[in-house]
Amino acid sequence: MVRIWRQQEQGASWEEERTTLMHTDWVRDVAWAPNTGMPFNIIASCSEDRTVVIWKQTDKDGPWVPSLMKSFDSPVWRVSWSITGNVLVVSTGDHNVTLWKQSVDETWVQVTTIDDGADGM
Predict the structure, then answer these.
(1) Which of 32, 50, 100, 119 lies 20 to 30 Å from 2, alpha-carbon distance?
(2) Distance from CA of residue 24 to its chain's centroid?
(3) How far apart (Å, rounded) are the C-alpha atoms in residues 71 and 61?
């Protein structure tokens, strides 16, 4: 389950904005992309169900729309955005780290795999 919260205009109270059951197993990580002038908000979540879900909010106070980015071959442990918010790093249980970028048609394309070297160090 992923829950998105919003701070109310008046004071420090928070209200739950969205709850969804897109994942079918433990959610292991959630990462908010830095907003570097993009006209939308974007969050990535990952789970032991082997999926990464991208959450996008295109209008201020608009709905959060989830979409499945990819199903992997093993559980996904971590997601992290680049400092500019346009590259997503995904770490899976089979010791793979991959970098992903959204293309013009809004599909996600693997840019590279990070290799730790032949000696495992």
Answers:
(1) 100
(2) 16
(3) 29
Report the 10 Å Cβ neighbour count for 80: 14
* Strands 76-81 vs 87-92: parallel, antiparallel or unpaired: antiparallel
| In contact, 110 and 90? CB cutoff 8 Å | no
Q: Give the CA radius of gyration of the chain.
A: 15
Q: Find all residues with CB under 8 Å of 60, minimum gap 6, and list them.
A: none
Assigned token pair, 32: 């908010």
